[in-house]
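Notes from the 1:1 (GR / supervisor)

We went over the backlog. Supervisor wanted to see one worked example end to end before approving the batch request, so GR pasted a single chain during the call. The sequence is below; no edits were made to it. Supervisor asked that the structure be written out right there so they could see what the output format looks like.
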Amino acid sequence: LDFPNRYLQDEIEVRQELAEVIRKIQPDILFAPYWIDAHPDHIATSKICDAARFYGKLTKTEMQGRPFYVKRIYYYIASHLKLNFKPSFVMDISKVMEMKIESIRCYESQFGPSPEGHQLFEWVLNSNRYWGNIIGAEFAEPFISKEEVGIKDIEAL
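Structure output shown during the call:
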């Protein structure tokens, strides 16, 4: 999707465009920014994701694709606020931490062509190291859910 950086708005057309992608891909899980933030794009994206999840299941619409409802939506923390929050669950990401950092480096609109030395990387590493320490892993990612999170196997905990 080609939405403008720093000008994203929660509008019907944007919701429908994302809902059409959801209908096409049919993901089991949708990840969105935590809804409490100082960055207007993060707030808008969170609202758009919530709405698009709902719009995806609508039957009386001109949207492309068959109706589809994403089973779960989980919110990740990328906040510009200093928040104290209680995650719904914390996931060990030690095996993919390097991939996470490399994917962030690709986001040129945030860093320009040379992201090296940007303070965000240190913050991300420290934050994920903190959450890893909480669960006994090297790195971990906290997620929040507005709905209850169920498990099918106690050993999965």
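Supervisor's comment: The two ends are 35 Å apart (CA to CA).
Batch request approved.
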